[in-house]
């Protein structure tokens, strides 16, 4: 059985990070499991964690007043979920729901913020990784705004 | 193989390319809200051989003519299969041509995917929306000779789960032919258990050996541009990366210029072109 510190360097989000940084952030991490249909978090709740998906699938959803929630994005094995822990006011903007049995590593947001504040060099490398995720998701959202597969103009 | 494009093969049409041949609709299937598949047979009984990736000019009498990619099996030239999206007057007439209706067809035209050049290596198909239809013949060709290829991945992006084309084929290709089928949609409902996101994100994580991969891409041009960038970033060689370009094909034989992309007439030099040819053209506005 691998420890979290042993596993993290294999995950794309942490791959290539200096070993001391990985060891430091691993101190904020714990293993979690979500059953199919179980929520990781709900919109509006304090964003006190982020999740590294080891296995499984998670939908990011938005409630609509007159119908079922709409899935705006999904995360899968080797993805990460959540950056609201880093951005004030630290509240989740979406619901996150496991759509299959999902194993993940949960990072305590307050613990991680504290370590990033204490050592800005650590904060910078963590932020670089988070920004990569944000950039990919922003690009995806922008391209999907074009509705490329919709009816031709 | 065309000298200019270096992409696919042209299986030539017989006789006068401007003379349509009558075909009769044998089967008519609605695939999605706006897309239908027609299975046609030549009235004269003479098969129309084609290469995967080619298109024909389909004419509905009294409505007009439109370029439509062939979506059928190249190993079965006795039937012609076309998957058509209803987007205008001509395609509306085509999709409403039920069993027994007669249509006129010219072709086949253009270059093919030449997927057999990928034998011995991995093959990656990247499709967006109706772009799965022109790729279907190439997937069928690979499945018919599956042992000759390494890993085969099909990455498909659709607008919503209801817009997913060839759902039965996708399941069969995965279960019977070991194709790694990955589907993502732009917008999912609560019940959708699959992926939501861009098809290019699938490319970034796809398990294939980029040095020995043939990649075939078809879909809206913006989607193809980003998919090609993602494939290049993974290390796929530009000469092994082929895209099917869509322009307003009209004559089908490189005379009228309606489908011109700078010096290329896509009806004869394309629609399938390699990325080393296309890269400088796709990033240029108004071409």
What is the fold's blueprint, element by element?
The complex is a heterodimer of chains A (153) and B (287).
Chain A: H1 4-7, H2 19-26, E1 29-34, E2 39-41, E3 49-55, E4 57-64, E5 67-76, E6 80-81, E7 95-98, E8 102-108, H3 109-118, H4 120-145
Antiparallel strand pairs in A: 1-8, 2-7, 3-6, 3-8, 4-5, 4-7
Chain B: E1 21-32, E2 35-42, E3 55-60, E4 64-69, E5 80-85, H1 89-95, E6 102-109, E7 122-128, H2 132-144, E8 152-158, H3 167-177, E9 179-185, E10 188-189, E11 195-196, H4 199-205, E12 213-218, H5 221-234, E13 241-244, E14 260-261, E15 264-265, E16 272-274, H6 275-282
Helix pairs in contact in B: 4-5
Mean pLDDT of chain A: 91
Rg of chain B, nearest Å = 18 Å
Give the termini distance of chain A in whole angstroms.
Answer: 55 Å
User: For this structure, what is the CATH homologous superfamily of chain A?
Assistant: Jelly Rolls
Please name the CATH topology of the largest domain in chain B: Rossmann fold
Secondary structure tally, helices of chain B: 6
Largest sheet of chain B: 7 strands, mixed
Overall pLDDT level of chain B = 91
Enumerate the strands of the largest sheet of chain A in spatial order, edge to edge or round the barrel.
1-8-3-6
Structure write-up:
The complex is a heterodimer of chains A (153) and B (287). Chain A is an alpha+beta fold. Chain A has one domain (8-145): Jelly Rolls (Sandwich). Chain A contains four helices and eight strands; from the N terminus they run ααββββββββαα. Chain A has helices at residues 4-7, 19-26, 109-118, 120-145; strands spanning 29-34, 39-41, 49-55, 57-64, 67-76, 80-81, 95-98, 102-108. In chain A, the strands form two sheets. Chain A has a four-stranded antiparallel sheet with strand order 1-8-3-6. A four-stranded antiparallel sheet of chain A has the order 2-7-4-5, with no helix packed on it. In chain A, strand 4 (57-64) and strand 5 (67-76) form a beta hairpin. In chain A, helix 3 crosses helix 4 (120-145). Chain A is globular. Chain A starts with a helix and ends in an 8-residue tail after the last helix. The mean pLDDT of chain A is 91. Chain B is of the alpha/beta class. Chain B folds into two domains: 21-109, Beta Barrel (Elongation Factor Tu (Ef-tu), domain 3); 115-282, Nucleotide-binding domain of ferredoxin-NADP reductase (FNR) module (Rossmann fold, 3-Layer(aba) Sandwich). Chain B has six helices and 16 strands. Chain B has helices at 89-95, 132-144, 167-177, 199-205, 221-234, 275-282, and strands at 21-32, 35-42, 55-60, 64-69, 80-85, 102-109, 122-128, 152-158, 179-185, 188-189, 195-196, 213-218, 241-244, 260-261, 264-265, 272-274. In chain B, strands 11-9-8-7-12-13-16 form a seven-stranded mixed sheet, with helices on both faces. In chain B, helix 4 runs parallel beside helix 5 (221-234). The longest helix of chain B has 14 residues, at 221-234. Chain B is globular. Chain B starts with 20 loop residues before the first strand and ends in a 5-residue tail after the last helix. The A-B interface holds A 57, 59-61, 68-74, 76, 78, 99-100, 136, 139-140, 143-144, 146-152 and B 34, 87, 128-130, 157-159, 163, 184, 186-198, 200-201, 205, 219-220, 222-223, 226.
